[in-house]
UniProtKB/TrEMBL annotation:
Superkingdom of the source species: Bacteria
Keywords, in A-Z order: Membrane, Transmembrane, Transmembrane helix
Signal peptide: none
SUPFAM superfamilies for the chain: NAD(P)-binding Rossmann-fold domains, TrkA C-terminal domain-like, Voltage-gated potassium channels
Organism: Gracilimonas mengyeensis
Keyword Membrane: yes
PROSITE patterns referenced in this protein's UniProt entry, alphabetically: RCK_C, RCK_N
PANTHER family: POTASSIUM CHANNEL PROTEIN 2-RELATED-RELATED, POTASSIUM CHANNEL PROTEIN YUGO-RELATED
Protein name stated in the entry: Trk K+ transport system, NAD-binding component
RCK N-terminal domain residues: 110-227, 337-445
Matching Pfam families: TrkA_C, TrkA_N
GO BP: potassium ion transport
Positions of transmembrane segments: 12-31, 70-95
Length: 544
């Protein structure tokens, strides 16, 4: 918006300068020719400006020749036109924005999601909704906040989400779901929404450690789904520790699984490309994608070099995956109890500790408050605290503290004290993810992104997420335009980025698909693995 105004002002100033310059040159030339009176260029500029602004002409008026009189008249009319153009183009929009802009108090939409007040997870949820062509409306109580969000391109209306009138104005009867947090403040939203539309799906977010009781009450009194993203993030952070990571899998049938495999330093696969390791031909697996320094890439090129920072997401026969996992492990493994530090013992920290308790590691927990389960009390963002913790020999450090700035300091100091530790951090805001990587984190998980994806998984019941925080979905969709073609002819992976893991035909699941011989038939459903964008591309290409 500021850029648009800047461009308008620059163009207007340039236009006036050009007009003044041209008119001044004509006036300087015409005076000796038609009036037998020479003038300097500055004098010409003065006369032109006086004409355009209609403030008078000093000693140069009146003129004897018709040309000069007509020319002066032209300059007068130009000045009037400039005023009439400038007023609607510049002043009216400014006045309208300054005194007339208000946020709408009602909308006319349907098949949308109602979001009760903007929060840290809202951007991630909106991105998920947009990727599925789902509309939304944010209800903001504060008029100033609503106007600011509107200026940033959000769909916003103003009103009290606890009010029946507001929810009706948000077209709740046509909505897919109502999403809100801070239930101890807005628990009446649940009752209000259900009173108006008993069938509406109400999703509540558990944000703080001491809010369990409110959500139990909410579930008892009408909330359809309550989610706790902090717990999921905590478990996710714990699974990132290569030394203790157990490959979480999603079973496609009794013989086929979708698993994650870490490439360990010193293993048979380390520092080889996918092509050099002969993974696709020797092991008959599908490589869905790979995490590279925390970013997921799908599909991956066969020239990708597998190093100790690589984590593959693959699908294949259970026995083949077991062989591949052995190749990804280092040939010499030191079976010692590694030490893992957890900074922050809130909901995420507890979930991480719970996940690690049965693994062959020693977990030491640090929190700013003294509570059950905490080994050390102190502020991990302060150097003296880390000096007392002896983290130099830790194999991994998990940081799950509330403040991202404190997490940034903790990451910097932890990396300075331990160059080899696997540092895994929870970011509360998406904007801080890259900063934490720059500070030395090996893996960063955004709480807002996880929350958004969890909400999307609750809203869209046609998909089941492999792991909400990992940007991959397993979906079942009709074969569509694939009917009559073989797997090789369809070239789905190259054209969409999706991987076909199996086919459902007459209620039976088929996972052995010969590329040249298996032909899709009418009525087939395909099981796809892919990102939101790739599955959406599949739908547009084969189902429209």
């Amino acid at each position: 918006m500021l850029k648009s105004w800047r461009n308008k002002i620059i163009n207007a100033v340039l236009t006036v300068i050009i007009i003044v310059g041209v008119y001044s040159s004509i006036f300087q030339w015409a005076m000796p020719v038609f009036e037998n009176h020479s003038v300097t260029f500055p004098q010409s500029v003065q006369v032109v400006i006086e004409s355009l602004t209609t403030t008078g002409y000093g000693g140069f008026a009146p003129w004897q020749s018709d040309f000069m009189n007509y020319f002066v008249l032209l300059m007068n009319l130009t000045g009037v036109v400039l005023v009439f153009v400038a007023f609607p183009v510049f002043f009216l929009p400014y006045l309208r924005d300054a005194i007339g802009k208000t946020a709408p108090r009602a909308v006319d939409t349907k098949d949308h999601v109602i979001i009760c007040e903007y929060s840290s997870y809202t951007n991630a949820l909106i991105e998920e909704l947009k990727s599925r062509d789902k509309d939304y409306i944010i209800i903001e109580q504060d008029e100033t906040n609503a106007l600011e969000l509107i200026s940033n391109g959000y769909n916003v209306m103003t009103g009290d989400p606890e009010s029946e009138d507001t929810l009706r104005a948000a077209c709740i009867s046509e909505a897919t779901a109502v999403v809100h947090s801070e239930i101890y403040k807005n628990i009446s939203i649940v009752f209000t929404a259900k009173n108006i539309e008993p069938g509406i799906k109400v999703i509540a977010i558990l944000r703080d450690d001491n809010m369990d009781i409110y959500y139990k009450l909410a579930r008892t009194n009408g909330a359809d789904i309550t989610i706790s993203p902090r717990q999921l993030v905590g478990k996710s952070l714990a699974t990132q520790i290569p030394a203790v990571s157990i490959n979480e899998s999603v079973e496609i049938d009794s013989t086929i699984e979708l698993v994650e495999i870490d490439i360990e330093e010193g293993s048979e696969l380390c520092n080889k490309t996918i092509h050099e390791a002969n993974l696709l031909n020797e092991h008959h697996i599908n490589i869905i994608g790979a995490w590279l320094n925390g970013d997921f890439k799908s599909p991956v090129d066969v020239d990708l070099v597998l190093d100790s920072k690589t984590r593959l997401l693959v699908a294949g026969d259970v026995s083949e995956l077991e062989q591949l996992t052995k190749k990804a492990e280092a040939q010499t493994r030191h079976f010692i109890r590694n030490e893992v530090f957890i900074f922050g013992y809130g909901r995420s920290g507890k979930a991480a500790a719970e996940f690690l308790k049965d693994k062959s590691v020693d977990v030491r927990i640090m929190d700013i408050k003294e509570k059950e389960g905490v080994d050390m009390v102190g502020d991990v963002s302060k150097p003296e605290t880390l000096d007392q913790m002896n983290i130099e020999d830790a194999s991994a450090i998990i940081i799950t503290i509330k403040d991202d700035t404190a997490a940034l300091f903790s990451t910097l100091m932890a990396r300075n004290k331990n160059k080899k530790a696997n540092i895994i951090v929870r970011a509360n805001d998406v904007e801080d993810v890259q900063k934490l990587y720059q500070a030395g984190a090996d893996y960063v998980q955004s709480l807002a992104t996880v929350t958004g994806r969890m909400l999307a998984s609750c809203i869209f019941e046609d998909e089941r997420s492999l792991a909400v925080e990992k940007q991959i979905n397993l979906v079942q969709l009709p074969a569509g335009d694939l009917v009559g073609r073989t797997l090789a002819e369809s070239n789905v992976r190259a054209e969409t980025g999706c991987t076909i893991l199996g086919v459902i035909r007459d209620g039976k699941k088929i996972t052995t698909l010969h590329p040249e011989k298996f032909e899709f038939q009418d009525g087939d459903d395909v099981i796809l693995a892919g990102t939101d964008d790739s599955t959406q591309l599949f739908e547009k290409k084969y189902l429209n």
